[in-house]
User: What shape does this take?
Amino acid sequence: MKRLVFAVAAITAAIASMPVDAADFAAPEEADAALPSSYSWSGLYVGGTVGTVSATADVSNVLFEGFDPGIPNFTVEFSGMLAGVTVGANHQWDNVVAGIEADYSWSNAEGSYTDPVFNFTVSTRLQSLASLRGRLGFAVNQLLFYGTAGAAYGTLEGELQDVYQAGTVVTTDTQSMLGWTAGVGAEIAVADNVTLKGEALYYDLGTTTYEFFEGPGRINPVSSDAAVTGWLGWVGANFNF
Assistant: This one.
């Protein structure tokens, strides 16, 4: 977790330290592509992001076919990469920039927990993560610092491997979760219609109930509640219209 936060902070600091004069980027023969002295953040944009995600699923209320065997609460930690697309719009008043952004990302983040007493393993996989967020920031020509917050939506797959005398039973259940997210970012314009950004976001997807049916003869499932929270850090590029 600390490595993730430090990495995003380093990326954001690097963006902030980049020159804001487009002449530093353009060769003499490309002077016509130079940014105006007063850059405007107003308009629509589309882009892409890539980064890392780290999260926990706090599991409680584990029931085996309606019976409480007394399993203590436990935590499944999972992490991995994510990549996705974004679309948004900004409007600028003097140095204040307000906007709205939607994103959707695919992820390979996963992790597992094995209970040493009851001999079962629970795995969690983050399949996708999306958000719809507002952005509010302060611009200095081509450089923008902002805060962002809004709704978050995630799809997570849970897997239960239960060991019996007759063998191991593996079952899965996929749940969609709705929560919230908030964070900070920095963005810099490197051409008249291209910007680069770095963001760090905290998200809370709320609590859902997983149900694992371990065979056709089982009337009631193995069930548990899972509360999912985490951090993500990514970098991205936007094309502005």
